[in-house]
Amino acid sequence: MADTILVIAEQRQGKLHPQSWETLVAGQQLAEARKARLIGALAGKGITGPTEEFAAKKLDEMWGVEHNLLEHYTPDGYAAAFRQLVEQLRPVLVLLPHTYQVRDFAPKLAASFRRGLISDCVGFSQPAPGGSASGGDGGQTVFIRQMFQGKTNADVEPVGAPPHFITFQAGAFRGDQVKSGDQKAEVRRAEIKLDSGQIRTQPGELFREAKQAVDLTQAEIIVSVGRGIKAPENIEMAKKLAGLLGGELAASRPICDEGWLPMERQIGSSGQTVAPKLYLALGISGAIQHVVGMKGSRTVVAINKDAHAPIFEVADYGIVGDLFEVVPALIEALEKGSTS
Ligand SMILES: Cc1cc2nc3c(=O)[nH]c(=O)nc-3n(C[C@H](O)[C@H](O)[C@H](O)COP(=O)(O)OP(=O)(O)OC[C@H]3O[C@@H](n4cnc5c(N)ncnc54)[C@H](O)[C@@H]3O)c2cc1C
Predict the structure, then answer these.
(1) Closest CA relative to residue 156, chosen from 165, 295, 267
(2) pLDDT tens track of the chain, all 340 residues?
(3) Ligand 1 binding site (Cβ under 6 Å of any ligand atom)
(4) Which residues contact 264 (CB under 8 A, 6 or more apart)?
(5) 270 CA distance to ligand 1 centroid (A)?
(6) What is the pTM of this model?
């Protein structure tokens, strides 16, 4: 019988988390490469809508894991519920999106099977039958994880008996590449036994994100600063450039974490997703969490003093140089241009 791959999706208040689609894309590609059955699962209460939505994609089966005690997320509830589902379906791989929620319960779920969790993967490679990508002879899927802030990748091969638990980083797969099914997958309901004594935490109020005051998604030109800008006072220079170009100012996450610019100007997986005509990246390395938020830009210009910075992989034009030399020169040229 064919192996089973289980994709665990995530919903909040009945709305699917976008990373669920990305994980499904990974699952579809893996199922194809391994000729495996692909099953989806979603937990909660009153989740018929998102369960059906997921079932419309290319899957062999979809399981709704519903219970009164799953109405609000708790790590104990989710780990116990998915443990029962995994025991029943006996998948070889359990794939999850690397969201905050998954990071909370997936280690507990994996540990309950005495298995590790290969977390935050950015891809996989599937050796041809009879060979292994990492040089072994297991013919196993090899998962790719970034190390040292993305400077190098590690190939990780799960060892021991399945199930193996894998999470995928935001942006590692493109959610818009999810394949629809020829027909809707059969939706099944998991019979889960849970009692309130198993759940040791009480969920509080849901965290509400601050209302966006700046809508960068509408900007045609964005000048975005990264840690290469070095100090908050230097942001003035980028602001001036943005003003001269008639664009908006944005930033990578560390700049917003430092409070140098407000959170609403953050681009990336935990910030805004933008698609301007021009995206000018100043001193931004190009970490995947940043790139997922700007890779839809029509033209990307990157200024970075490191010729090997990953931002150059998505840039249409790259300047390998010191932004403290290049940006003043650009400002001077634009000022001259506007007066001549
Ligand atoms: C769950 C999670 C979510 C995340 N979400 C986001 C997100 O939404 N958005 C985001 O941006 N990040 C996000 N991150 C962080 C992300 O992984 C990176 O750490 C971050 O994007 C790096 O920011 P940076 O490129 O500004 O800094 P760095 O990686 O430190 O890069 C600075 C760059 O500046 C260059 N530089 C230095 N000096 C100069 C100079 N004088 N002239 C030219 N170039 C120079 C360097 O060569 C380097 O490439 C997230 C991380 C996690 C774990």
Answers:
(1) 165
(2) 789 999 999 999 999 998 899 999 999 999 999 999 999 999 999 999 999 999 999 999 999 999 999 999 999 999 999 999 999 999 999 999 998 899 999 999 999 999 999 999 989 998 766 554 443 334 689 999 988 766 678 999 999 999 999 999 877 888 889 999 999 999 999 999 999 999 999 988 876 655 556 778 778 999 999 999 999 999 999 999 999 999 999 999 999 999 999 999 999 888 887 888 999 999 999 998 899 889 878 899 999 999 999 999 999 999 999 999 999 999 999 999 876 6
(3) 226-228, 252-254, 266-271, 283-285, 287, 289-290, 293, 303-306, 309, 322-324
(4) 210, 212, 213, 214, 216, 272
(5) 13
(6) 0.71
* The pair of three-digit structure tokens given for residue 16, joined into one six-digit string: 């699917």
Domain 4-198: CATH architecture, name and number where available: 3-Layer(aba) Sandwich (3.40)
Protein residue with its CA nearest to atom 52 in ligand 1: 289
Mutate-to-test residue for ligand 1 from 252, 264, 265, highest number of ligand atoms within 8 A of CB: 252
- How many helices (H) and strands (E) are present in the chain, helices listed first? 9, 16
Residue 264 alpha carbon to ligand 1 centre in Å = 17
| Domain segments of the chain as ranges | 4-198, 216-339
Q: What φ, ψ does residue 75 adopt, rounded to 5°? A: -60, -40
CA of 97 to the centre of ligand 1 (A): 22
CA angle 178, 184, 185 (to 5 degrees): 85
Q: Do domains 4-198 and 216-339 have the same CATH topology?
A: yes
For tokens 């199930």, name the residue: 163
Of 104, 265, 301, 304, best ligand 1 pocket probe by most atoms within 8 Å of the beta carbon: 304
* Encoded tokens for 286: 């190009």
Which CATH architecture group holds 216-339? Answer: 3-Layer(aba) Sandwich (3.40)
284 CA distance to ligand 1 middle (Å)? 5
Nearest CA to ligand 1 atom 41: 322
Tokens of 141: 């899927």
Calculate how far, in angstroms, residue 28's C-alpha sits from the geometric centre of ligand 1.
30
